[in-house]
UniProtKB/TrEMBL annotation:
Pfam families for this protein: SQS_PSY
Gene3D superfamilies recorded: Farnesyl Diphosphate Synthase (1.10.600.10)
Domain of life assignment: Bacteria
Name of the protein in question: Phytoene/squalene synthase family protein
Lineage of producing organism: Bacteria, Pseudomonadati, Pseudomonadota, Alphaproteobacteria, Sphingomonadales
InterPro entries, alphabetized: Isoprenoid_synthase_dom_sf, Squ/phyt_synthse, Squalene/phytoene_synthase_CS, Trans_IPPS_bact-type, Trans_IPPS_HH
Iron recorded as keyword: no
UniProt GO BP: carotenoid biosynthetic process
Gene Ontology terms for molecular function: geranylgeranyl diphosphate synthase activity; squalene synthase [NAD(P)H] activity
CDD domains: Trans_IPPS_HH
Signal sequence annotation: none
Length: 364
């Protein structure tokens, strides 16, 4: 009688080799990432062309991951329609997190955008904490969250843009311990997102979202969910201007950090600041007509902002006094306080000689 074969002991099993980028060729990942950014963001494409080749490629790799996460979370494809099953938004965010962690651990994900993140993370030492900060913003949207206070609005902006700014700074070679420059990179991301929120108030409302703090709406005597009604348009114009004013404060602070970057990186960052800042200022200038047509910058305007970025890159930044109310450190604390508690460890503790059931006999 034959004995049944036993399972192979675990010591004989080989672990899947870890490879940054999921084992895909670097050139292939960069090519796909470039296609993604050219389709998804003409503004970012224009500014990123000023980087040196390595920085540009890494910026595109990071953008591809951000774009893919955004599409999965919203059920879209580069902002367009994407046919998905009836999966729960929270499940989609959890899938984003799992794929992201797998990519950061050097495992293949079967998704080129996540493999792109794995590659750029390995090259620039991007951490799981940085990526989780970004994913937490998608989690807020999946939960149908809305900000009650200005602080909660800024915490959301930190997740979806400020944290990306920090990752971009690391890609540009800012050391992990240069906290002041990383703070300024976060400021730039906050400015970008505040301008985007001001521009997209109508689109967000159509999607059932609102990022204007409830306290701001109450101060303006606008009932919840009614801010797009014509009778409240004058108050809404003031709230949008308040968003843009806040964005300009953080943009001014970001320019201080840009001055410490290499020249081409500084030029790219300051050009992007002009392009995104112009969006917010156009919203403010249009007044009640701001949401009749989506605000955007033309190719000619982008070229002008690239020239202005070059001019600013050759000058010292203007001093900022006072600095913005909301800091990266404070927003990170808020984010950690609102995060779910860490899971309890499941590894059993050794009990040998930790607390003996009976005392050992002492030698006489």
């Amino acid at each position: 009688m034959k004995r049944p074969r036993t399972l192979i002991p675990s010591r004989h099993l080989r672990e899947t080799p870890r490879q940054s980028g999921g084992g895909r060729p670097r050139a292939s990942l960069i090519s796909k990432a470039r296609e993604s950014i050219e389709e998804g963001s003409k503004s970012f494409t224009a500014a990123s062309m000023l980087f040196d080749e390595d920085t540009r490629d890494r910026a595109h790799l990071l953008y591809a991951w951000c774009r893919r996460c955004d599409d999965i979370a919203d059920g879209q494809d580069h902002g367009g329609t994407l046919t998905l099953d009836d999966s729960d938004p929270k499940d989609r965010v959890e899938a984003i997190r799992i794929l992201t962690h797998r990519a950061l651990e050097g495992h293949p994900t079967a998704d080129i955008a996540f493999d792109a993140l794995g590659l750029v993370a390995a090259e620039c030492r991007l951490t799981k904490e940085m990526a989780d900060d970004v994913i937490d913003g998608f989690a807020l949207d999946a939960a149908g969250w809305r900000p009650r206070t200005e602080g909660e609005l800024m915490r959301y902006c930190f997740h979806v843009a400020g944290a990306v700014g920090v990752m971009m700074a690391r890609i540009m070679g800012v050391p992990a311990d240069d906290h002041d420059t990383l703070d300024r990179a976060c400021d730039l991301g906050l400015a970008f997102q505040l301008n985007n929120i001001a521009r997209d108030i109508w689109e967000d409302d159509a999607a059932g979202r609102c990022y204007i703090p409830e306290e701001w709406l109450a101060e303006a005597d606008i009932p919840p969910g009614q801010h797009m009604k014509p009778m409240f348009r004058p108050q809404l114009v003031k709230l949008a201007a308040r968003l843009v004013d806040l964005a300009e404060q953080h943009e001014a602070a970001a320019r201080l950090g840009a001055a410490r970057l290499r020249f081409r990186d500084r030029w790219a960052v300051l050009s992007a600041a002009h392009i995104y800042g112009a969006i917010g200022r156009e919203v403010r200038e249009r007044g009640e007509a701001a949401w009749d047509h989506r605000v955007h910058t033309t190719t000619g305007e982008k070229l002008r902002y690239l020239w202005l970025g070059l001019r600013d890159a050759m000058r010292d930044p203007e001093p900022v006094d006072p600095m913005p109310r909301w800091t990266r450190g404070e927003l990170m604390v808020m984010a950690r306080m609102e995060a779910p508690p860490a899971p309890m460890p499941t590894t059993p503790l050794r009990d040998e000689e930790v607390r003996p059931a009976t005392p050992k006999p002492q030698p006489e």
